[in-house]
Structure to design on (192 residues):
């Protein structure tokens, strides 16, 4: 009974939280994150206010340190926006993706820009790894569409130094076949 009541409350409150929090917006005035990738096709100014993505509730990694970071662990946060992006990758099946670690002020989060031109639905898993070993993972349902979309983790307080974060996105068919793996720190030209 408690689980049912919790699910109902979550279903009512979550859309308001997403609408209120939303992403911070583009990492630079041009709307293209700065970093390794050029973000030619997936990152147009199509997301000027940011998209909410279709991620499920994050599931922090279990472990003795899985609690939220204390104020002493959070970095002071530089002023301005931060973005560290890997290259834009394309699979032979028609999936395009670019994964970034984004930050604004004291917050850091992971985001994957993607386009699913496969003709069928896909599942994406985006994992953000913090420098202290904690992880946040979201699953995103990726409908077939030639339009770009995003999957992102919730914004969270930056731990230690902003540059110590890594994000990895894995996109698979509904049968579980891995189609594309994209990372925020992938060297230019490396796929998979």
């Amino acid at each position: 009974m408690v689980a049912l009541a919790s699910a109902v409350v979550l279903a009512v409150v979550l859309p308001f939280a997403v609408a209120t929090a939303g992403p911070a917006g583009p990492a630079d005035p041009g709307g293209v994150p700065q970093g390794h990738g050029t973000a030619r096709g997936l990152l147009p100014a199509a997301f000027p206010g940011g998209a909410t993505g279709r991620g499920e509730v994050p599931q922090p990694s279990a472990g003795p340190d899985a609690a939220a970071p204390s104020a002493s662990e959070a970095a002071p946060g530089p002023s301005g926006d931060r973005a560290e992006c890997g290259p834009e990758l394309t699979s032979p099946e028609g999936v395009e993706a670019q994964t970034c670690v984004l930050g604004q002020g004291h917050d850091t989060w992971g985001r994957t820009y993607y386009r699913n031109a496969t003709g069928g639905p896909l599942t994406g898993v985006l994992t953000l790894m913090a420098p202290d070993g904690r992880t946040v993972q979201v699953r995103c349902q990726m409908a077939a569409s030639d339009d770009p979309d995003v999957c992102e983790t919730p914004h969270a307080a930056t731990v230690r130094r902003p540059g110590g974060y890594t994000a990895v996105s894995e996109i698979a068919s509904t049968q579980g076949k891995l189609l594309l793996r994209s990372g925020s720190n992938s060297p230019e030209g490396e796929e998979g």
